[in-house]
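User: I'm preparing a small set of examples for a lab meeting where we compare how different chains pack in three dimensions. I only have the primary sequence for this one, and I'd like the structure in token form so I can line it up with the others. Please keep the answer compact; I'll paste it straight into my notes.
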Amino acid sequence: MYSAIEGASYGGYRQVELAETRTICAIWLSRRMPLSNIMLSPPKKIRKEVFGNGEKKAEEVFITNEKIPDALAALSCAYYASSLVGR
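Assistant: Understood. Below is the structure token output for the 87-residue chain.
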């Protein structure tokens, strides 16, 4: 099993709270799987792997009537983690 945590985007949006959340997730995951299976990756790297273009955002790729960009970014992060299997 692999897990991916999206790193900081440095957009200035509540970075302290997001950093704390990433840390808690990493600690929780580290107690359940090997550290080598946990990837902390920058958003552009995740988008490049999943969409083929690091500049393309999830809400531009996944067509939905809802305004849920954070959920779509989380979905792309899950796709990224699943792409790590077998590498």
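A couple of notes for your slides: DSSP finds four helices and two strands in the chain. The chain has one domain: 3-83.

User: Perfect, thanks.
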